[in-house]
Design a protein that fits this description.
The complex is a heterodimer of chains A (165) and B (100).
Chain A: H1 2-22, H2 26-46, H3 50-74, H4 80-83, H5 90-105, H6 126-164
Helix pairs in contact in A: 1-2, 2-3
Chain B: H1 3-24, H2 28-53, H3 56-87
Helix pairs in contact in B: 1-2, 2-3
The chains are: A mainly alpha (165), B mainly alpha (100).
Chain lengths: 165, 100
């Protein structure tokens, strides 16, 4: 049953990613991107990595995409890029895009788990993950909060300087 | 092919689609969305590795990718708004005068 769901949601994720690439209107592309992210969250849930599935929905689908949708609504998207969607690099880019997954497909297969499972799927439950995470990565977590603060300040400064100057 | 190798290949396909979008689309906002697709593909490969090895390291890495993605999108959207205010268009070809 897991295999079926992984196959289903992988197909949906690739389909919606292709739609982001193809659709003309940025708002429709954003909606396809949201569907793509939800499909990925379903894959994570199927793999029993629930904590990342929750992050995916809370951070990506909610915060990041709301930001993106607000920006689309703020700007007029009916310009030259609306009439002509693609640049002249279509064919070279297509060749590179085909070569990357092909090389991954041809990698020698290694089946099974790399190490003996310790703790089972519940290892990635929210409580267990939070304990493990804060035990091993608390300093990185603090650094990440500083990085977020710098990001917010940079965005605010860029907009302020841009509007003033 | 087991499910882990399938998912890694899927991550490659999704990454390639994002890369293709960054290379060929002319709309600034859609290019940003394709960057997010590339980041999502990286997250998928990390989660697959975490699930396969049953260790916390891969899942923890995704947390830091989410932080980087949030910062990136906040800063990038501010820059996009300013660029559009300056040039009046979302077309990448109109921003050829950027230097550095």
């Amino acid at each position: 049953m897991d295999t079926f769901f992984i196959l289903l949601f992988s197909t949906l994720a690739v389909l919606f990613a292709a739609l982001v690439l193809i659709l003309r209107q940025p708002m429709r592309a954003a909606l396809a991107l949201i569907a793509h992210m939800v499909s990925l969250a379903c894959i994570y849930a199927t793999l029993n990595v629930h904590v990342v599935a929750i992050f995916q929905i809370l951070i990506y689908v909610s915060a990041v995409m709301v930001f993106m949708v607000y920006t689309i609504m703020l700007l007029d998207d009916r310009d030259a890029s609306y009439r002509q969607r693609f640049s002249r690099w279509v064919y070279p880019a297509l060749i590179v895009a085909v070569l990357i997954p092909l090389s991954l497909w041809l990698l020698p297969a290694e089946s099974g788990a790399l190490v003996a499972p310790a703790g089972g799927p519940e290892r990635f439950s929210f409580a267990a993950f939070a304990l493990d995470f804060m035990k091993s990565y608390w300093f990185h977590f603090e650094l990440a909060t500083v990085l977020l603060l710098i990001g917010v300040l940079s965005a605010w400064t860029a907009v302020k300087e841009g509007l003033d100057g | 092919m087991d499910k882990y190798q399938f998912l890694i290949t899927m991550a490659g396909v999704i990454f390639s689609l994002g890369l293709l979008g960054v290379a060929v689309r002319r709309n600034l906002l859609v290019v940003m969305m394709c960057l997010e697709i590339m980041l999502n593909a990286v997250v998928l490969s990390f989660v697959t590795s975490a699930s396969r090895s049953n260790t916390v390291a891969g899942a923890s890495m995704t947390f830091f990718i989410y932080v980087a993605a949030s910062c990136e999108i906040a800063l990038a959207m501010a820059i996009v708004v300013l660029l559009v205010k300056r040039h009046g268009t979302l077309d990448l070809d109109a921003h050829q005068d950027l230097k550095g």
